[in-house]
Specification:
The chain is mainly alpha-helical. The chain has 4 helices and no strands.
């Protein structure tokens, strides 16, 4: 009887430790890909601003069509940089990855505008 109790306890202990390890690995993977996405978006927004937006603003030609093109350039650059594994993980973790990416790009543009204004 003691062996049965110890075996049951040992199995529960191993399961708990396995679940803890799985959760830690999942959290590390989640954090890694979210950070990768945020840094990539930040870098791509800055690059688009420096190579495209600033030149058009200097010519007073940054109209709504140019804004749309700047957004698409940034989004294309982000998607080109992210690995397939990152895209797959982010799509499964975030649900609507496309909408999340759009929101993240727009938010970063606003952060840059505020930083430039101050």
């Amino acid at each position: 009887p003691l062996l049965v109790v110890l075996s049951t306890y040992f199995i529960k202990f191993i399961n708990a430790k396995s679940n803890e390890l799985i959760n830690r690995v999942d959290n590390e993977k989640h954090d890694k890909y979210i950070l990768m996405l945020q840094e990539t978006v930040t870098d791509c927004v800055l690059t688009t601003t420096q190579t495209y937006v600033d030149a058009l603003k200097g010519q007073n030609a940054f109209d709504p069509e140019a804004q749309k093109k700047a957004f698409e350039m940034t989004k294309t650059a982000v998607l080109a940089i992210l690995t397939d594994d990152a895209k797959e993980y982010l799509a499964s973790a975030l649900g609507d990855f496309d909408q999340y990416l759009t929101t993240l790009i727009e938010a970063q543009v606003q952060v840059n505008k505020l930083a430039a204004a101050s």
